[in-house]
Amino acid sequence: MTREDFIDYIAREENEVVIKAIREKAAHIHDVDCNQKYGEDKPYSFHLDMVTTMVMDYCHLACEYEHHIMPIIFGAAFHDAIEDARMTYHDVLSLAKTFMTNYQAVIATELVYALTDEKGRTRKERGSDKHYQDIRDTLYAPFVKFCDRYCNWKYSVETGSRMAKVYEKEMPNFIEKIGGTKYVPKELISMI
User: Fold this and answer.
1) How large is the average pLDDT for residues 157-174?
2) Where are the alpha helices (DSSP H) in the chain?
3) What is the distance in angstroms between the CA of the first residue and the CA of the last residue of the chain?
4) HSE-up (13 A, CA, CB side) for residue 156
């Protein structure tokens, strides 16, 4: 898909309305319903907006079909909903169906589900080999996961968080685990 095709798609009035509603609903669930924070003082929607914006900036590199755009955007906006907002798979699917076709809703929900960390006491346990296999096996999950990790790393660097060094140390292994350029556009990986 070309960048122009992507821009034309999201610029359609009906799509602009849906994208805005998806972003607002994700923000409400994390910020209001869960009172979740990002860092010490930001509402969690700050992170969701960063990830969704990055996904929209580079979606044309990862997405081949126009009818996959909305599920990818939904997946970016809700990528932490099961893990952090305690939504179930079926909650996410029901919600996704309010924004798109059943086919698209399944793609979006599978994406959110694949991005949900495993249960574990440590980062290593939560990021198990099975977790990364599920990411590689799910359409667009490596792309969205890369955008999520990149945004976390960038924010950590900008704020001087100790996590910046953790993300930097993990990055080569992380890129390998999500499948490298087989699944993530090389233009994104070269940003590191």
Assistant:
1) 94
2) 3-11, 13-27, 45-62, 69-77, 81-84, 89-97, 102-115, 123-126, 129-137, 141-159, 163-177, 186-189
3) 24
4) 14
Q: What confidence tens digit (pLDDT) does each residue in 53-103 have?
A: 999 999 999 998 999 999 999 999 999 999 999 999 999 999 999 999 999
Tell me the CATH number of domain 3-189, given options 1.10.486.10, 1.10.3210.10, 3.40.50.720, 1.10.8.60: 1.10.3210.10
Q: Which DSSP letter does residue 34 get?
A: S
Give the type of residue at 99.
Answer: F
pTM confidence score: 0.95
Question: What token pair was written down for 125?
Answer: 């346990």
**Which residue, among 90, 190, 102, has the nearest Cα to 146 in the 3D structure?**
190
HEC profile of 98-139: CCCCHHHHHHHHHHHHHHCCCCCCCHHHHCCHHHHHHHHHCC
